Structure formats: C-alpha cells, structure tokens
Amino acid sequence: MKHIPTVGFISLGCPKALVDSEKILTGLRTEGYAISSTYQDADIVVVNTCGFIDAAVEESLDSIGEAIKEHGRVIVTGCLGAREADIRARHPQVLQVTGAHAYEEVMAAVHTHLPPRHDPFVSLVPPQGVKLTPSHYAYLKISEGCNHRCTFCIIPSLRGDLVSRPLDDVLLEAEKLVAAGVKEILVVSQDTSAYGVDINYQAVNWRGQSVQTRFYELADKLGELGCWVRMHYVYPYPHVDKIIPLMAEGKLLPYLDIPFQHANNRLLKLMKRPAASQNNLERINAWRAICPEISLRSTFIVGFPGETEQEFTELLDFLTEARLDRVGCFAYSPVQGAVANTLPNAVPEEVKQERLARFMALQAEISAERLQQRVGRIETVLVDEVVAEGAVARSKADAPEIDGQVFIDGATHLTVGDFVKIEIEEADEHDLWGHLV
Ligand code: SF4
User: Fold this and answer.
1) Which atom of ligand 1 has the smallest separation from the CA of 191?
2) Is 156 in the pocket of ligand 1 (CB under 6 A)?
C-alpha cells in the first residue's frame, strides 16, 4: 500500500491556539495527510507553541526539544514562532519556524518538508473540520490579534492588531458545528467585545438579511442556533450591557468571562487596561438586576509593579463587594518584551505570594458562598463524561476546563452531550453534586 504522508501534531497554549491547531489539522486532512499522535508513525512533527508567559515559553521550548530528540524533523508555529531567534538559539535543528496565525505559512512549510500525496479523496474531512475538543462542545474563534497594548502583555506583538472574521463566515462555521452535534459553542478571541471594529462593523448578508459584524449581532444570531453559547474575553464597555437581556431571555448562557485584572484605577491605567475608567461595580449590579442568574468569571493580577498595600486592599474590597462566581489570580511575573518590566517599584516576590494567598483565601470563601446559594435549585446541566460512579456534567455557570463540575452519582445511563435537569444537593468551593429530577 502506498505510504500516506503523516504529520505528528503537538498543540500547546490557550483555546485560541487550539482553534489554530484545528484549522491546520483540518487543512492537512483535506490535503490527504494522515495525523498521528505518536512520534514513531509521523514523518514530520508540527509543534504549535505558546509564548504568553515565561512558563509557557519554557514549556514550548521543552516540547520542541522533546520532538527533536524523539523524532528529529520538526516545524514550529504559534505565538512563540514570533521569536525565531530564541527558538533557534536553543534548538538550531528545527526545520522551519512560522508565527502565530500563519496558517498558509505552516501549510507551505509542511509541503516543503513533506509533500502531500496526490489524492482526490477529500471526503475524509468532516464538514465542520477537525476538532480537538470533545464533540459536544467547540471553541469558535471570531477574531485574531488585539488593538490594546496592556503593558504586561506581548500578545499584540506576537499576533498583531485585531482582525475580525466577517459575521457570515463565523455564523456558517457555528451552524456546521451545531449540525455536527455540538451542544455548546464557546466564543473566543483576544477581545470579544471589540468584534468588528477593525472592519467598520461591515454589513453582511445573512439568510436574506443585512446584519452588521458586531458584538451584539454576533450574540443575537448565535443565540438563534439552539445550542448553549458562552462568551469569553469580554471587556466591561457600556455596549456590553446590551447583550445581558439576551441572557435573561435564554438566548445566551448567563455567563460572562470578563478579565478585570485589578480594581484600583491608578494600576488599571498603568496596566493600560481596556475600559479602565468604567465603574465596574455599578456595571455588575446593573447586569444582575437585568439577569439575576448571571455568573461572572474574572482574572486578576496581584503584585503588579508599584502596587501598594492600600491598592491591594482596594482590590480585596472590590472582591468582597462584587461577589464574583469564579476567579483566577496570578502573581505578576515579568514577560520578556513586556512594557511593564520597565515600571519602577517592583513588588518583592514574598509580598506578591503573600498577597496572592490572601486574595485566594478571600475568593474561596466567596465562591463557596455563591455555590451554596444554589443548593436546592433545579438546573439544566450538560453531561461531559460518564464514569463508573456516575455522570460528570457542567452547569450554565461553568466553562469547560476552567470552572467547576457537577457530579451526578449513579447516573451511568446518561450519554455525553445530554442535557438533563438535576436538583443540586451539595456544594463545596468549586463543584456541585446533584440528582436527576
Ligand atoms: S486586551 Fe490586553 S491582555 Fe488582552 S490580548 Fe490585548 S493587550 Fe493582551
């Protein structure tokens, strides 16, 4: 039998990088390449890297090193690809390096080092493309890059300014996903609330209607597809208020992933955060008035250069008032090439760690209290996994991987992707337990 050119693929990084990997894999399968999960069966290995923080850079460099050691023929792409010199300094043997969001370049690199077999058989590719997530949920990337210049972040220098996909393109992909059995779509980008601004909210024709490429229209149209739709990476701009009624109507999941990063105005300005001057507490209260079941997830940085004890306390006060449902927090760590590294008054490491611990302890209490309030409620959950003890599901308030889970003991007859109603019986600070009703 004729040998099928086979590509080994290693996908690192955030959901946005995962979407890039899916696009590359879909392209490779379309051209007749086989994909292998082992080094032995691969003719070449592609590593899709992450370069967001120093730990991710190290992980990426280690993965490249492992692929070179185990296989030898390696192409590197993704965020870290923008730093070719750093990669070559550590791993001079890599065959080729391409940057983030450089789909055509990666494909060209694979063609150069492993030409495709001439084969008209393209029907091996499912119409929704190759997905790396379980088939009942999928990430939908609506744009690439970012127009902001947060001083702790190097993503714009790696991925460039915002480039939005026209709305019809995005909706077509979403429809294909739903037709293929996807029950939950997770909208991702670097800045979801800015969707369309770079293309002047270009109007497209969608099912005979002229619709603008804009955040609200995106939410509204996705909300008509009949699946769960979850919004990630939204900033607290006034126009975001408009989508909260869609959540109250049940068109969108009542969930917002909204990275606040801090509560003190001086620090937010030093960070150059989008919507830094907004009154976030007022905004949160207004959202809850419109949609009381809304769940809010956010991330924060403690120990940013110059953060005083008083400013940190202001952040704790904000947490106490805001009562967010899910929170991630990082002690500030300098990223090579980030402007924030040049700011004066770095916070000593032990102070950063002490603040991180205080922050997390406070939020653990708040999260536990928020979850406890749901005990006794009847909620619809989506089954993610069925194991020997029962089903593992997620509620509307939980995004996969980053939030909590809902355990339904004994419900082994359920199937992944089922929506079921449960009564919540128990909660800890992360997860819930319930029984079918
Ligand atoms: S909004 Fe800020 S943190 Fe997010 S990608 Fe853009 S520059 Fe980076």
Assistant:
1) 1
2) yes
